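Example record

One chain of 237 residues, shown exactly as stored in the release files.
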Amino acid sequence: MQRYQQDKDSIKNWLTAKETGQIIALIAASFNGVDSHDYFNRYFANPQHYQRRLRLFYQDEVLLGYCLLTFRKVANNSIVMGASAAFTPGYRGNNSTFGFSFFAAVSTWLRHPKHKVYYLDTMLSPAMYRAIGKKVAFIYPNPGMNSADINRYHALVPNAEPSTWHGLNCLKTVGRATNYSKDDIARLKASTKTEIAFYCQLNPKFDNGTALMVLIPVNLKQLLYTGIKWLKSLVKR
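Predicted structure tokens for this chain:
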């Protein structure tokens, strides 16, 4: 059986009717408490996004997952990238989204030198937070945030709901949850891995329709330190 990827761009080669139906079916299978058609319209067809980029993951003709990136311009000369991803249970945990998201963020930053660029994701998965947090140098929230970091985060993520951790407003009620099994949820909540334990401390109701607002600045400092972090990980292997 052959696995392959297919990339789509709303500007030049957007979705066919068949691909749209596959994505809506995957959304329905991946999330609890969500109307898959409404979800699709909100993320895949929202006019607030000036561009959408999508990577589809297939095995033969079966859609295994997708990673959607959305782009919108906001106040203060900023561009905010958003993301949505869904995968079949057997394909989760393959770190399929990082490279696609990272290179899209870098190319956006390079093409818009007069803009500040941020990646903002409503993460429902502790495992996803860990996967991203282990790769990038600066991710917010993080356990080492000081009061200045918290103030900057609050300014960039307004209207977030409060967590019990240091009074940080970092949560969002989204009314959907990743379709984890009970065993998956128990294992995540009992995890001692630093990033997963921190996520669960911030957002213990991730399995009940609450997401963590994860902010990643895209700038020269981020790229330099992320590159150093990547090189160090290669040395350790």
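Notes: The beta strands are 3-9, 31-32, 51-59, 62-74, 78-87, 116-123, 161-162, 169-173, 177-178, 210-218.
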